[in-house]
Amino acid sequence: MIKATITGIAAELPEYILTNEELSRMVDTSDQWIMTRIGIKERRILKGNGKGSSHLGTKAVNKLLEKTGTDPSEIDLLICATVTPDHQFPATANIISHNSGIKNAFSYDLNAGCSGFLFALGTAQQFIESGKTRKVVVVGAEKMSSIVDYQDRATCPIFGDASGAVLLEPTSENTGIIDSKLQSDGVGLPHLHQKAGGSAHPASHQTVDAREHYIYQEGQCVFKWAVSKMADVSLEVMKRNGLNNNDIAWLVPHQANMRIIEAVARRMKLDKNKVMVNIEKYGNTTAATLPLCIWEWEEKLRKGDNIILTTFGAGFTWGAMYLKWGYNGK
What we know:
This protein is an alpha/beta fold. Helix content is 30%, strand content 25%.
């Protein structure tokens, strides 16, 4: 049976570091307040006129192709998970493909909030397993700073900019994506969204003046949903694959809030040393958090490691994926 396995990973981070100390000079907050409630020390911000999510995505994809020795002409499909596309259209995936010399592929964007990368992996898996494609790039690329209100102390400390990309290929070995459960519920719309800029509420002087083109989040509600759903779906995937906490080498949770990560790990009865956490350095980079974690931990990964990825995002969207790592980290 053919499975889809990750054969390489790369990432791109902006150079500029926005620290809590600098943020506290912009809005009424402090390092202690942010660390206690969210667990973030600093985040990366993309600077420069005309640089959107495709700038970060292109750099990550180019690094991935070079690292894996893959010619751009070999790529059959590129999916970009993002909530901050360069434009309403065309797709940011098209721009990344063009910039990376990927000419023989079809490409498109996928928006599932912070769950975008996981949903895109699950989609790419189907193309690989069906035999329709052989080499698929999945990239999570976000310029969250473009939709963050730096006058809103509740949301501005949370988000950062970054990109991560993986190469998926078919394998007949006992590695790759084994199982996943992906879900969504539109009841989450009022609690986490961008109020204006879409077809329901197009941009106008009024919407701009009302600061409605930024992230709106009701933190308490999102927190409760995230802890419950991420843990529930992860435990369900483990149960139906006969896994217990001792079988799991690594948990890769969405990096939204340190308290959410800790609560999910407790529900899964996982030792903290098995949980990938880099939120303190990068914040919530939305669709880029999962590949960023895997990229940072790549050297520690061993072929056959049982890994659970889990996430929660706007929509609401959430999910968990069980995969067996495909190679020894270099």
